[in-house]
């Protein structure tokens, strides 16, 4: 499955390990010591048998093109795709977009997170999750052995959990009374159902099933 041969090149002795990858393509690696060549040949052969072989050159791909290909393949809606792309362009690509995937270490990620401390913790976490998802995909595609975002040495951004205090009935009624007549329903919907602002503004009469008492957010 793998063989080692000795060659002389420019007055130097090299040991060439020849083997086939998972796609049965002929590959080779040159080293100057026979022991290293034999060790590499044995490792490749064992990995092929175990089904754990990984292309030694796979991690050479840079983060930015890999991230862009990942983003293009996602089934996000267009607004989500644009939001993720913007976060990457502003906060990830300038720092390590040019780096090969295999050069991204836990220390690289931790230093990057430190540079994001000026941002809100919740926003830091969203950016971190995006980058970690991209690197998880690299692991799944066998471009990386493991995700550098996951070791315990990487301190993930902590988001402060705030207790939500619902408005009292008096507050809701006061807001409702202060709205123009055509918008009073906004206060009732927001207080009664808890949808987001955009969801409230997007509702129309056809979204309300009066017989069943159901509101559909489309």
Protein model, in words:
- The structure is a single chain.
- The protein is of the alpha+beta class.
- The chain has three domains: 2-53; 60-140, Orthogonal Bundle (DNA polymerase, domain 1), CATH 1.10.150; 169-215, no CATH class.
- Helices cover 47% and strands 12% of the residues.
- The chain contains nine helices and five strands.
- Helix 2 (63-73) runs antiparallel to helix 3 (78-91), helix 2 crosses helix 6 and helix 7 (169-178) runs antiparallel to helix 8.
Largest sheet report? 3 strands, antiparallel
CATH architecture level-2 label of the largest domain: Orthogonal Bundle
Computed over alpha carbons, the radius of gyration is: 28 Å
* Distance N to C terminus: 57 Å
Overall outline: elongated
Number of helices: 9
Total E-strand runs: 5
SSE series: EEEHHHHHHHHHEE
Strand content: 5-15%
Helix % is 40-55%
Q: What fold name stands as the CATH topology of the largest domain?
A: DNA polymerase, domain 1
CATH class of the largest domain: Mainly Alpha
Tell me the strand order in the biggest sheet: 1-2-3
Q: Number of folding domains?
A: 3
CATH superfamily of the largest domain: Tyrosine recombinase, N-terminal domain
How would you classify the helix and strand content by structural class?
alpha+beta
């Amino acid at each position: 499955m793998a063989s080692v041969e000795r060659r002389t090149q420019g007055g130097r002795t090299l040991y060439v390990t020849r083997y086939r990858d998972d796609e049965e393509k002929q590959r080779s690696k040159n080293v100057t010591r026979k022991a290293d060549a034999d060790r590499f040949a044995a490792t490749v052969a064992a990995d092929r048998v175990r089904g754990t072989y990984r292309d030694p050159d796979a991690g050479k791909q840079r983060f930015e093109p890999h991230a862009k290909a990942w983003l293009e393949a996602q089934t996000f809606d267009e607004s989500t795709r644009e939001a993720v792309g913007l976060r990457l362009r502003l906060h990830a690509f300038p720092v390590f977009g040019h780096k090969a995937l295999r050069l991204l270490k836990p220390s690289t990620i931790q230093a990057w997170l430190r540079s994001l401390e000026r941002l809100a913790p919740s926003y830091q976490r969203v950016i971190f999750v995006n980058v970690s998802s991209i690197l998880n995909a690299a692991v799944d595609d066998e471009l990386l052995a493991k995700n550098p975002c996951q070791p315990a040495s990487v301190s993930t951004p902590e988001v402060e959990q705030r207790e939500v205090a619902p408005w009292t009935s008096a507050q809701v009624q006061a807001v409702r009374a202060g709205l123009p007549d055509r918008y009073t329903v906004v206060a009732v919907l927001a207080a009664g159902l808890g949808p987001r602002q955009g969801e409230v503004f997007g509702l129309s009469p056809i979204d309300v099933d009066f017989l069943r008492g159901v509101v559909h957010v489309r």
